[in-house]
Amino acid sequence: MHQLPLLSKIQLLHAVTETEIETAYGRSNRSFVIREGRFTPAQRKAFEQYWPAYGIDTDELQALDLQQYFSVQQPLVLDIGFGAGDSLLSLAKQRPDLNFVGVEVYRPGIGAVMQRLHQQEINNVRLINADVVPLLENCIATASITGVLVWFPDPWPKKRHHKRRLIRPNFLDQVQRILQPEGVLHLASDWQPYVVDMQEQLAAYPELKPFTSAPHPLAISRPDTRFQQRGLRLGHELSDLIYLR
């Protein structure tokens, strides 16, 4: 398998164009495009100020000991694509007995989330600024994660863009590998064609079994988000897909 290099914190901080990102990562069918716009001086300052406290640097082909970044060792949950961070902060407060690692590519938002973590004195969250697929491939140990959350990923509705969807074999292969026995994968979307596609993709992974009972296996409640509210305003049906390893 071709291994894509990960961006260091310094590269990420100063790579400001799509071309610079692709030079560092290599061109691939990423599940995101760079939409962050201008990285303002204030946003850059927040990123630099709080990264040492809440950020986790990633190095090429180097496994991470995620627990070393937390003051207390607790089960680990990955929140992939946390965006504005409202759900991530809510989860951290709901379950202070879990350690949450948020993975996001958009740096201005990461700076704002770190500032809120500092202001609210939330200590069970750390953040990674990286493309999630090479991150999982290179840096996350087998059977080390209790939960993986992917809520409202970009549905890439146009057929020619379906290859960019995150929930694909290269991602699911890694999720199945990193989840502990009884580990949880929780997907959510308001785009029903993508929901069907995700279900079809996951049908090829018999070790990931659909979970339809209550309560939630991680004892969490998915908070309302801007994406969810937008979907409801548009009349979209919201779907949660939960799987146990």
Task: Please give a handful of descriptors for the protein shown.
alpha/beta, 9 helices, single chain, 245 residues, Rossmann fold, disordered N terminus
Structure write-up:
The protein has 245 residues and is an alpha/beta fold. Helices cover 36% and strands 17% of the residues. It has a seven-stranded mixed sheet with strand order 3-2-1-4-5-7-6, with helices on both faces. It is globular, with a radius of gyration of 17 Å.
| Total beta strand runs | 7
- What is the helix content? 25-40%
Shape: globular
Q: Termini separation (Å)?
A: 24 Å
Quote the CATH topology.
Answer: Rossmann fold
Using only C-alpha atoms, the radius of gyration works out to 17 Å
In short:
The chain is α/β, with parallel strands linked by helices and 245 residues long.
Ordered list of secondary-structure elements with their pairings:
Layout: H1 9-14, H2 18-25, H3 41-54, E1 76-80, H4 86-94, E2 99-104, H5 107-119, E3 125-129, H6 132-139, E4 145-151, H7 169-178, E5 179-189, H8 192-202, E6 209-210, H9 226-233, E7 239-244
Parallel strand pairs: 1-2, 1-4, 2-3, 4-5
Antiparallel strand pairs: 5-7, 6-7
